[in-house]
Amino acid sequence: MTTAPEQHTGTSGVADESALELLVHGVGGTTPQEMLDDPRTVRVSGDDTAAVHRRAEDVDAESRPDDYRGRPVPEAYVWCNLTSGNGSRALWLVLLPFMVVNLAHWMRPNALSRTRTVRLYGLLVRLAGLTLTVLLVAAACEVALDLTAWQCAGTPACAERRTWLGFLADGWWSQPGRRLALAALVPTALSVLLWYLSHRTWSAYEAQRPLPHQPDPEGTDGSADNALARPGFWYGRRLVSRLRAAHTAAALLTVAAAVGTSAARYDRRAGGPVLLDVLGRIFVGALIAGLLAILAVVVLRGRTEDRIDLDLDRTLVRVLPYGALTLLALTMVYAGWSRPHWHSSGRLPGDAAFGGIALAQMVLVLALAVVAKAIYRTAVDRRTALRGLGGPATAMLACGLGGVMTGGVAQRVADWLDGTSGLIAGPPVLLSWQASVIPPLLVVLAVLCAVLALRTARRKKAETVRVAADYHLDEHADGTGERPDAARTSDIAGTRARAALTDRAPVIIGVVSAVSLLLGGLAVAGAWGTGRVPGTAAQGTFPLLEGAADTSQALGSWLIGAGFILFVAWGRRAYKDPAARRTIGILWDVGTFWPRAAHPFAPPCYAERAVPDLTWRMDTWTRTTGGRLILSGHSQGSVLAAAAAWQLPPSVRRRVGLLTYGSPLQRLYGRWFPAQFGPPALASLHRQVDCWRNLYRETDPIGGPIGLPGDCGPAVDHPALLDPLAYGRTERHPLPAPILGHGDYQADPVLAEERARLLARLKHAVPTPRGQGQGSSGRSSG
């Protein structure tokens, strides 16, 4: 690797002429050759995971300032390997519910101050995340312990069909407690794997310390109220380690409960040895104590953002999971104690467990909605998604995804073990009721999609008129405009109309979440009220209703299982298909921007590596050269650019110009994450950087305007760019110009023009380098 020399310039004039454009790509990733438009590039800083690249001819640009007068030195920050570098990360699809509930934490409405209500919001999301961990491990216990070891291995006819279970049906392992203890190794291995992955990904991705915030001798930092500017925002190591210990312990105690409660119940009823009864009661007491300790860890501490928190709570982090593992080991020994008269029949008490988890999740979501609405009322902003209920709706989606995955696994394993023979009781009744509500939910979703399709068609008609005006089409071809082409106009208008569907996402998520909450509540009530699979609760009383319920349950069971199989197949395909791997990488680009604040088993936060990378690069370059810097971000790269600008010392931030294009800063992040990217935060960033210009297209489904007034210089937003660049064939575009949508903003000459304007503005505002004994010049007026 070659490192670009960064020499301190000797005169103020040279310093003022030094300029750097730091390019940050968007979702899906790209190569440094494509970003720099040159096949010969050199890595000047970084590693194989994320690095800064230059063109080979620009490596020593700082030593030849005369060659770069009037133009910036381009650098490309490539971070795509943080999210979509290899096929193994496709396995993160299994962690999707954890990622979604972590997003809910950051969707808190904007508040005037950090109050107890804000802390309560974070606590409720953390508790919802804890229920998802218990749900996932409970599903593994349902498959391994209940369906396999308890039901199938305990039924001779089923065990005969599955020869690999033969050793559990006869001999030393035939006792139920021993079968459960052996089967518990599967969910235990899953729990340990989740713990290992969380620990390893932290070391690989998130262990980068942010740039320390030094006191600014040139002024005061006006961004103290912005969370993204706090020194410890991108360093949540302590919270993640505490949550990892708590969730690992919760997972292991869930396995212990599944193994030990059945044995303890048998010992109380059978009137066996007093020792076993005492051990059972001790086990239950230890289990309750462990659960209380876990809740205390989750409840008593949230994130520390005002400083870089280097404490690790090593004793807690070690004692909690290892204590739970010890209790699990002792429980397995206790369950494996000889009980010759114990025989398995029916199901393990999974209905109570899954019903309790589902009820707890619904209560948490409703409480979260109340808290979120209370926070929203303190600073009402109509642009906020779902009027402040975006976080609760997203948390409900996470719980729904967890339920779908749980039910899908249980239903398919039960079908595989038993088929249609009816030899075993099958999964808990609640999972069948949850499956029965899938078809009604799909019907609601289909109706919603039909309504959106109708509105899109109407918008397309309106856009047809606007396209004619934007391109000055002349229907009479009298020489004052281009002749209209119906097909071309329809393509452009249709692309604009479909791009506007992004603004309807809150409606879709809100409706789906509300219906899921309602149907989920009905499923719990039906399962607990009847105790039977849908369609069999009152046979003969309402034949039509019973038939519809039975059909819905069968169809839902098939859909939930097929959906899970499709989910797994998609992840498996990503091992061999680069295109599929790239698609999954885009999902993580959007979903894993935020630190793990609610769930430690969520995929790692790439921004905890990318933001410090960008901040350190900008800070060291500007302090060394004293030159100008344009931070140029496309799509998700613009979000990283804004986050990095907030982390800069104020004196450096004032030397930076921000150029964003195809940016979701306001359209997506401002609406869904108002506390961090709402209008007050973006207006603060506008005031703190020297200048900011944003480009967007109406055909872009992701990027959009920032929507801020020009109260400290020119307005941020450039008028919407025409896309395509030309309607028909012209001298400049003799072939039909493509509709670019979200990509290739560099093809529009307006981008180069805006870059030049930003550089010209910065030229008169940049202070001389530190160490030359001169003060900073004032900000330009624009």
From TrEMBL:
Keywords: Membrane, Transmembrane, Transmembrane helix
This protein's record includes keyword Membrane: yes
InterPro entries: AB_hydrolase_fold (IPR029058)
Disordered: region residues: 763-782
Ranges of compositional bias, category Gly residues: 772-782
TM annotation in the entry: 90-108, 120-140, 180-197, 245-266, 278-299, 319-337, 357-376, 388-410, 430-454, 507-531, 551-571
Upper taxonomic lineage: Bacteria, Bacillati, Actinomycetota, Actinomycetes, Kitasatosporales
Protein name: Integral membrane protein
Organism this protein belongs to: Streptomyces tabacisoli
